[in-house]
Specification:
The protein is an alpha/beta fold and 438 residues long. The protein is built from 14 helices and 15 strands. The strands form 6 sheets. The protein has a 5-stranded parallel beta sheet. The chain has a two-stranded antiparallel ribbon with strand order 1-2. Helix 12 packs parallel to helix 14.
């Protein structure tokens, strides 16, 4: 028997927008947005005109959250423009008796949608930081926004090559609060030909955005978001290993020990980058907000994959690197010179290629890394050196003394490589000490 209060994948069906391009496992492009909604993680939809950005978020706005709060829905719609003032227009109103502005109930909305966010001047876009952070300042206080601990920001924008004269640059700090970015111009995220034929066949001829039926499943979504948060708090050793590999490995620099403000300029002429294609020169380590978004988004992707098909097998390593690809593409991690010269500002293409190279490197060392982590977490044992026999690896410290000289000691955890692995030594020490403290 189906529990009517339980979220089913069918509940998430969209009325108008269709995009079945497969991304990972059984998940398609629309699923990428659905996973962000369930997290919740803020979504940024970018692309040229006519790519379906508005239709996609309008379907979600009406079918998941019941539309506008003033009409008994759970959402607030904002269209950005040069004179926008969301504080006075949306979140406060004049209290005549007290001769001061008072908060409106718009702070209790579950979803905030900003249409064409970059049509507000860069300085005016500072107003949207509160939506990204989930808090607004009022009367000397920091006021949490959202419903029952849930709050989602969806924004869209035309990013481009000068074709859009009414747009402005977006601050890196604001982009950092837009956790998941999908460029619907990118080949991997475009609807298939079959999708377009199906849309044309089933819809009336109307160039305007189609209105989805009003439906409010926000209660179910909020419940799922809590489950995903719990999963993200303990994502498993594979996910944590990838997270550490990305955060600490990408900060490694064989020339300067750590990447700093001199990166990526110092990559030019570096003896470790003579061919110009050293992986360490491609990107830098994410900041903490992006790291947390990546871990949570991977948990959401995994949850949605199994909600879609309970028999679906998911791989934590694959999910983490795909999550990194989608949360990191617009976070100023990529080498700007290579992005401009070699990839013509195509962030998704550059990020996808880099994520694959990183995953391949991780996979080449995965058995070592996971063995060391598992031994430290389970037994408090520090296994950081190995030996090989008949194609199999073992702990070098477990060899009898009279045999240790017969087998070469393999010590993989070094920072003398493009993506550092020295962090494994620190992590093993940390886990072993935690185990002893129990």
């Amino acid at each position: 028997m189906t529990n009517k209060n339980q979220l089913n994948y069918e509940d998430l069906e969209l009325a108008n927008y269709l995009n079945t391009s497969q991304v990972i496992g059984n998940l398609d492009v629309v699923d990428l947005v659905k996973a962000a909604v369930l997290s919740p993680l803020n979504v940024f939809l970018v692309g040229s005109k006519g790519t379906g950005k508005t239709q996609l978020f309008q379907d979600i706005y009406r079918s998941y959250f019941g539309g506008n709060k003033k009409e008994n829905g759970q959402g607030i719609f904002i269209r950005a423009h040069p004179e926008i003032d969301i504080y006075n227009e949306i979140f406060t109103e004049l209290n005549v008796e007290k001769a001061k502005r008072a908060l409106t109930d718009n702070i209790d909305a579950a979803v905030y949608v900003v249409e064409e966010i970059n049509r507000a001047p860069t300085k005016a876009q500072n107003q949207f930081f509160g939506l990204g952070d989930g808090a607004m300042d009022h009367d000397g206080r920091l006021i949490k926004i959202g419903k029952d601990g849930y709050r989602l920001l969806i924004a869209n924008a035309n990013l481009g090559n000068g074709s859009y004269q009414g747009t402005f640059d977006t601050d890196e700090a604001l982009l950092n609060r837009l956790h998941v970015t999908l460029d619907l111009d990118h080949e991997s995220f475009k609807p298939t030909i079959e999708d377009k034929l199906e849309i044309r066949h089933r819809q009336s001829v109307d160039p305007n955005v189609k209105e989805a039926p009003i439906k409010d499943i926000s209660g179910k979504i909020i419940t799922v978001s809590r489950e995903i948060s719990e999963k993200a708090h303990n994502p498993g050793i594979e996910a944590l290993a990838v997270a550490n590999y990305i955060e600490f490995g990408l900060d490694n620099c064989m020339k300067n020990k750590n990447k700093g403000k001199v990166w990526p300029m110092d990559c030019q002429g570096c003896t470790h980058n003579q061919s110009g294609n050293a992986l360490c020169s491609y990107l830098k380590s994410p900041v903490e907000r992006t790291m947390q978004a990546m871990i949570k988004y991977a948990a959401a992707l995994d949850y949605l994959s199994k909600l879609k098909d309970k028999n679906q097998n998911t791989d934590a390593v694959d999910m983490m690197f795909k999550s990194f690809e989608l949360t990191g593409a617009y976070q100023s991690l990529l080498n700007p010179m290579l992005l401009r010269q070699d990839y013509l500002e195509q962030n998704p293409k550059f990020m996808a290629e880099v994520a694959k190279k990183l995953k391949d490197d991780f996979r080449a060392n995965e058995d070592f890394i996971l063995t060391s982590i598992d031994e430290a977490a389970s037994n408090g044992k520090k296994t950081v050196a190995f030996f090989e026999k008949d194609g199999k690896f073992g702990s070098h410290s477990d060899l009898p003394e009279n045999l240790k000289g017969e087998y070469a000691k393999i010590e993989p955890y070094t920072n003398g490589r493009e993506i550092g692995l020295g962090w494994v030594n620190n992590y093993v020490d940390f886990l072993a000490n935690q185990r002893k403290g129990k």
